[in-house]
Specification:
The complex is a heterodimer of chains A (about 350) and B (about 325). By secondary structure, chain A is of the alpha/beta class. Chain A is about 35% helix and about 20% strand. The two termini of chain A are about 30 Å apart. Chain A has a 7-stranded mixed beta sheet with strand order 3-2-4-5-7-6-12, with helices on both faces. Chain A has a 5-stranded mixed beta sheet with strand order 9-11-10-13-14, with helices on both faces. Chain A has a two-stranded antiparallel sheet with strand order 1-8. In chain A, α8 links the parallel β10 and β11. Chain B is of the alpha/beta class and about 325 residues long. Chain B has one domain: Thiamin diphosphate (ThDP)-binding fold, Pyr/PP domains (Rossmann fold), CATH 3.40.50. Chain B contains 11 helices and 8 strands. In chain B, β5 and β6 form a beta hairpin. Classes of the chains: A alpha/beta (about 350), B alpha/beta (about 325). The interface between A and B is large, with 46 and 45 residues.
Chain lengths: ~350, ~325
């Protein structure tokens, strides 16, 4: 057993892989500075030098195309964005170039490119530093989209992404960086496209993405006290989506809530719900419930921000409603809050 | 001198003849891909590619028939892809706008203006790191300069001293819009010249002149490691997309074409060789190329289409491992 943070796990994954393969390099705005993208790239410059760990001009679009060019010429770039919102400047490269490059060369070229992007949240991140955009990327054929939740996932999935010969977008939630968990010291990979059951249960299935898994597990722990057994399933990869474990779980429980760390409309929850309706028709005991961000831009002021984001309480109330239970008394329950952790500014 | 001139003519003729064949065959409706014809720009691509080695790499635009043939001379694959046949490396998935042949250094072509420029810079960066001595040339029209990503890419290459030849093929038009409607500046070379970059320009339609200019660009890069911006003028003979002339529309005058056609790159090269007394050799070369193209077209027409299952292939590498 060795407990490290999600952030340390990401760092260790890159460090070990860069030691293994000299063609791997990491770059992006702020990557080699003292902050090192919330600490995830700290120490890489010292270890590997500026040839393999470098800062870039504020040119997200060109720097993404640059990664594609290096990848087709046998390098293995890791491009880091401190916000998903900034990655949107490169959507042309993602949708028009990277995703179809191999297809367009008749399978002649490979694109072993990793793009890491962080979902911002603290307080006050507002509408340009807080986006997830999961389904936007997952909608495009030719891109793999991975959302690590635990520290063990962070290391194993990042290593899998680096070793993958295809473009992989790894989206990391800012709050997950502080999660602590058991992470093996040696390099290992977790297959891209494999879901994970974070908590076993039999009464209801909660499919959650990214940070919402933390909220879902908390909700499950609270509900356990009143005898409700919740199964929490984390798809971990949303493109390509392997629904096998999700379907198996829903067939067992008959009830499903999907808690996505993103907007609901046209989102990952819509895709997963459709898969469940297609494969669990006649088995479902109630309609699928979807939980996600309010369908608004993210506001800045804390009291409005609290209305924007769903949390464990949202999930608990939703489960109670679905199972026909009276709302339980949550007095004395301590819910995850970053008021004590997050002191700003970013 | 004569071998060089003859080699250059061979490529010029190969390109022109191939496109003439497209013009002849397009109405048969077998080539179901939007044709952005190269006619008029042959001197640029032949001049540049002749100065490059087989392993050097180029990136092109949707108007890359000439570049593809200048770099690869692979008429079999060219016509197979135009016809969308399984015998093409891309099996019909790419068509005229996305030609490529990485094994011969043609690394890809984009139909989103300027999107391939940063890709070329990244490819050149990899070559630099891998110390494989491969040079990269990226071709784009003057319209690409209006895209932000051109400036991002230029800035990056200058900053990191990445050896890229930025080849601006300036025909003065973006579809039907003249440069006076698009440019808030007078001289692009003056502006690019402020970057840490070698800048060369030429208005000649003589492929040998371009060739010598590119040798100079490569030498400059060896001396100062800076990338090079080449500003080269040409005239687009045909419509933006399609196989026809479009002087009747009115956005440009046929007199412009008549002026440029007097110094047409293929005619120019041929007249130089004829003046040197190579008439017989030219006849032989042209006949050989005619036969090569005829055979490529025959094979393309004869080849089957890919099986429908091809639709789902080559999205990912090792696709079978992907769930």
């Amino acid at each position: 057993m060795r407990n490290i943070t999600y952030c340390e796990a990401l760092n260790e994954a890159m460090l070990q892989e860069m030691e293994r393969d000299s063609n791997i390099f990491v770059y992006g705005i702020g990557v080699p500075d003292h902050v090192g993208v919330f600490g995830s790239t700290v120490g890489l410059l010292k270890k590997f030098g500026k040839e393999r760990c470098f800062d870039t001009p504020i040119s997200e679009d060109a720097m993404t195309g640059f990664g594609l060019g290096a990848a087709i010429n046998k390098m293995r770039p890791i491009h880091v964005h401190i916000r998903v919102d900034f990655l949107l400047l490169a959507i042309n490269q993602l949708a028009n170039m990277i995703s179809c490059y191999r297809y367009g060369t008749g399978g002649t070229l490979k694109v072993p490119l990793v793009i890491r992007a962080v979902v911002g949240r603290g307080w006050g991140q507002s509408f340009q530093h807080s986006k997830s955009m999961f389904s936007t990327f997952a909608h495009i054929p030719g891109l793999k989209v991975v959302l690590p939740t635990t520290p063990k996932d962070a290391k194993g999935l990042l290593i899998a992404a680096i070793r993958d010969d295809n473009p992989v977008i790894l989206i990391e939630h800012r709050w997950l960086y502080w999660q602590v968990g058991d992470v093996p010291e040696e390099p290992y990979s977790i297959p891209i496209g494999e879901a994970n059951i974070l908590k076993k249960g039999k009464d209801i299935t909660i499919v959650a993405t990214s940070w919402m898994n933390v909220e879902a597990v908390k909700a499950a722990d609270v509900l356990e006290k009143i005898g409700i057994s919740v199964e929490v399933v984390d798809p971990r990869t949303i493109a390509p989506l392997n629904d096998e474990i999700i379907i198996k779980s829903v067939k067992k429980t008959g009830h499903c809530i999907i808690a996505d760390n993103d907007w609901v409309d046209f989102g990952v929850s819509a895709e997963i719900a459709t898969k469940i309706y297609e494969k669990c028709f006649g088995v479902l005991k109630s309609p699928i419930e979807r939980i996600g961000f309010a369908h608004t831009p993210c506001p800045t002021a804390r009291h409005l921000e609290n209305c924007f984001y769903p949390n464990a309480v949202t999930i608990i109330r939703s489960v109670e409603k679905k199972l026909g239970l009276e709302p339980m008394d949550l007095t004395g329950e301590s819910f995850y809050s970053h008021e004590n952790r997050f002191k700003g500014p970013f | 001198m004569s071998n060089l001139s003859m080699d250059i003519y061979r490529k010029l003729y190969l390109i022109r003849k191939s496109e003439e064949e497209i013009r002849r065959l397009y109405p048969e409706n077998e080539m179901k891909t939007p044709m952005h014809m190269s006619m008029g720009e042959e001197a640029i691509v032949v001049g540049v590619c002749h100065a490059l080695s087989h392993d050097d790499q180029v990136f092109g635009t949707y108007r890359s028939h000439a570049l593809y043939l200048a770099k690869t001379e692979n008429t079999d694959n060219f016509f197979a892809e135009m016809c969308g046949k399984v015998s093409s490396m891309q099996k019909g998935k790419s068509g005229s706008m996305h030609l490529c042949d990485p094994n011969r250094g043609f690394m890809g072509a984009s139909a989103i203006v300027a999107s391939h420029i940063s890709v070329a810079v990244g490819a050149a960066f990899a070559n630099l790191r891998l110390k494989n001595k491969k040079m990269v040339a990226v071709f784009f029209g003057d319209g690409a300069i209006e895209e932000g990503t051109f400036w991002e890419s230029l800035n990056l290459a200058c900053l990191m001293k990445i050896p890229v030849l930025f080849v601006c093929e300036d025909n003065g038009l973006a579809v039907h819009t003249s440069e006076s409607e698009r440019h808030g500046y007078d001289s692009i070379t003056d502006i690019v010249g402020k970057f840490k970059c070698n800048v060369l320009k030429e208005e000649s339609t003589d492929a040998e002149t371009i060739y010598k200019l590119v040798l100079k660009a490569i030498k400059l890069n060896e001396e100062n490691q800076m990338p090079c911006f080449l500003h080269l003028k040409y005239y687009r003979y045909l419509e933006h997309v399609g196989i026809n002339e479009d002087f009747n529309i009115g956005y440009r005058s046929k007199n412009e074409y008549i002026d440029w056609a007097k110094r047409d790159p293929i005619k120019l090269q041929k007249s130089k060789l004829l003046a040197l007394g190579y008439g017989k050799e030219l006849e032989i070369i042209e006949l050989q190329i005619d036969k090569k193209i005829e055979k490529s077209i025959f094979l393309a027409k004869k080849a089957p289409f890919a099986d429908e299952s091809e639709l789902y292939k080559d999205i990912f590498s090792d696709n079978e491992a992907v769930i």
